[in-house]
Specification:
By secondary structure, this protein is an alpha/beta fold. Among the domains are: 29-124 and 204-418 and 481-486, TIM Barrel; 130-189, Alpha-Beta Complex (Oligo-1,6-glucosidase, domain 2), CATH 3.90.400.10. It has 15 helices and 18 strands. The strands form four sheets. It has an eight-stranded parallel beta sheet with strand order 11-10-9-5-2-1-13-12. It has a five-stranded antiparallel beta sheet with strand order 14-15-16-18-17, covered by helices on one side. Strand 15 and strand 16 (526-531) form a beta hairpin. Helix 12 (382-398) runs parallel beside helix 15. The protein starts with 15 loop residues before the first helix and ends in a 7-residue tail after the last strand. Bound molecules: 1-deoxynojirimycin. 1-deoxynojirimycin (NOJ) is lined by residues 81, 84, 121, 192, 228-229, 291, 352-353.
């Protein structure tokens, strides 16, 4: 592999959080915007979002008021799984631009006060990665095959897979290869698509290669990494059968990972403690955020111990329905469990893998199982979902810790549930009939018809997924400057969050409140009230309303499914 050349990088910017919290690391209280690059903005008119498109919207992101961007994988890839099948970790896919474009983008983000988090994919490569091509061309037992999980098959002629593990995307987790002489040969492991062979993290070559990849991007000024499938890197080398647990593997959502032979094994922590040491060699509080779907917050806390990763997505919160007892329970468990290891919480409502929360919350019962693709239990009420999504925005932006905003959350986008089957792109669709495409539809920026400014006027191709005509009413341009819009709600809340030392990192104290009302105080002088009950509730007397997700009633009460931020101590007036 070619050595990375260190380049001059601009230092990452300081955030409001650092100013407000006496120099605490920025990631403890950052608001981070997830850029699903292929759906953000298309600069060259081929119907797919790219770096040029992102670059042209940095003003929008800076004005939104976020501290950092997390950009989904942009590396060279055959795109069998939207770029999570990486052929070269040190280059940018031509669909998105060039390495020079990425370097310019990082510098431009820093100039706009935005840090940049890259997405690192260590569990698997692409089958087009040089290492995997070399493994296929090499014999069983070779050094080239030892970087992956190659095994002989079972059965008299090796015709059965080595064990009963299942792919997360449906079907068996093993594919048989042809040896050089054309005969059926060994099998290789892929916990995702067959185009995503799993790396063998027992192999020191794999460890060294990822050290070099991390350094390649750290040298280019990357401020952090989101770690894809962080809970999957360590496998039980005995590769034992799952037996009765095999069925669980394909369940959309999270299988039970306790005591599992390939999920959340303790050996992953050695890898990440080592990664922490690598990142700590660099100036400027570089950070990691783990994508770790694990059973129980106590298992998640292990990833964010003080000598390991700084943060991990809190999927327990994402999975909770819009109901007060469940939300309060998750918030308390999170604060207690992550607080015990000194880590901040990281709140997330949506991402490119789950149905958008506006649609999940559009079920009358708060949408319990919808995050894992379960069907609706009653009619879908998108107006209700929007009210709740706006309230959820104020809730998450007020909670102690960091927060992720998935692109389009700030526009009030819903899950697109009527994409025609012949337009589906997600590889899970063919095997399982489930799709993640509904949360990945290109953003509506402006105009009255698709592509809604996603692509330039002279584009040669349609957006890679079809946009709903109804998005004409919620384009960014339409919402900008309208104080009742979801975009302006986010901008206002992020502006307040930046300037208010009570917000971001810290703690909360619950207030006494009526049933199904979440009310908490954060010092100095801040209160958040979220009304999940069916009737309006009174707000505390004598406090100043900073922002609300819905107009108050004529009596000044907070509507059902609405949230308000209050200043508890009015500043002394002249
Ligand atoms: C999690 C990513 O978020 C998802 O999009 C991808 O398909 C899998 N990991 C496999 O890399």
């Amino acid at each position: 592999m070619e050595e990375s050349s260190a380049v001059e990088v601009e230092p990452a910017p300081g955030t409001g959080h650092e100013r407000a919290h006496g120099g605490a690391p920025w990631w403890r209280g950052a608001s981070i915007y997830q850029v699903y690059l292929r759906s953000f903005a298309d600069g060259n008119g081929d119907g797919v979002g790219d770096i040029a498109g992102l670059r042209s919207h940095l003003e929008y992101l800076a004005a939104l008021g976020v501290d950092a961007l997390w950009i989904n994988p942009w590396y060279r890839s055959p795109m069998a799984d939207g770029g999570y099948d990486v052929a070269d970790y040190r280059d940018i896919d031509p669909l998105f631009g060039t390495l020079a474009d990425a370097e310019d983008l990082i510098a431009a983000c820093h100039e706009h006060g935005l840090r940049v988090i890259a997405d690192i994919v260590p569990n698997h490569t692409s089958d087009q990665h040089e290492w995997f091509k070399a493994a296929l061309a090499s014999p069983p037992g070779s050094r080239e095959r030892a970087r992956f999980w190659f095994r002989p098959g079972r059965g008299a002629h090796g015709e059965l897979p080595p064990n009963d593990w299942r792919s997360r995307f449906g079907g068996q987790a093993w594919t048989r290869v042809k040896e050089a002489d054309g005969s059926p040969g060994e099998w290789y492991l892929h916990l995702f698509t067959p185009e995503q062979p799993d790396l063998n993290w027992e192999n020191p070559e794999v460890v060294a290669e990822f050290d070099a990849i991390l350094r390649f991007w750290l040298d280019r000024g990357i401020d952090g990494f989101r770690i894809d499938v962080a809970h999957g890197l360590a496998k039980d080398p005995a590769l034992p059968d799952l037996g009765a647990r095999a069925d669980d593997s394909e369940k959309f959502g999270r299988p039970d990972t306790l005591g599992h032979p390939h999920w959340d094994r303790d050996a992953v922590h050695d890898i990440f403690q080592h990664w922490r040491r690598v990142a700590d060699e660099y100036p400027g509080d570089r950070m990691f955020v783990a994508e770790a779907w694990v059973t129980g917050l106590d298992r998640l806390a292990l990833y964010v111990r003080s000598n390991e990763l700084q943060t991990a997505f809190n999927f327990e919160f994402l999975m909770a329905p819009w109901r007060a007892p469940e939300l309060r329970g998750v918030i308390d468990d999170t604060m207690r469990t992550l607080g015990a290891v000194g880590a901040p919480a990281t709140w997330v409502l949506s991402n490119h893998d789950v149905p958008r929360h506006l649609t999940r919350y559009a079920a009358a019962d708060g949408g319990g199982g919808r995050w894992r693709g379960e069907p609706l239990t009653g009619p879908e009420d998108l107006a209700l979902g929007l009210r709740r999504a706006r309230a959820a925005a104020l809730l998450t932006l007020a909670l102690p810790g960091g927060v992720y905003i998935y692109q389009g959350d700030e526009l009030g986008l819903w899950e697109v549930e009527d994409i025609p089957a012949d337009r589906m792109q997600d590889p899970t669709f063919a095997n399982t009939g489930r799709t993640r495409d509904g949360s990945r539809v290109p953003l509506p920026w402006s105009g009255d018809a698709p592509p809604f400014g996603f692509s330039p006027a002279d584009a040669t191709a349609e957006p890679w997924l079809p946009q709903p005509a109804a998005w004409r009413d919620i384009t960014a341009a339409r919402q900008q400057g309208d104080p009742t819009s979801t975009l302006e709600l986010y901008r206002m809340a992020l502006r307040i969050r930046h300037g208010n030392p009570a917000l971001g990192d810290g703690t909360l104290v619950w207030d006494d409140a009526p049933a199904d009302v979440l009310s908490f105080t954060r010092e100095p002088g801040f209160r958040c009230v979220v009304n999940l009950s069916a009737a309006p509730v009174a707000l505390p007397v004598g406090e100043e309303l900073l922002v609300a997700s819905a107009p108050l009633t004529a009596d000044g009460e907070l509507e059902s499914d609405a949230a308000a931020w209050l200043a508890t101590k009015l500043p002394a007036r002249e």
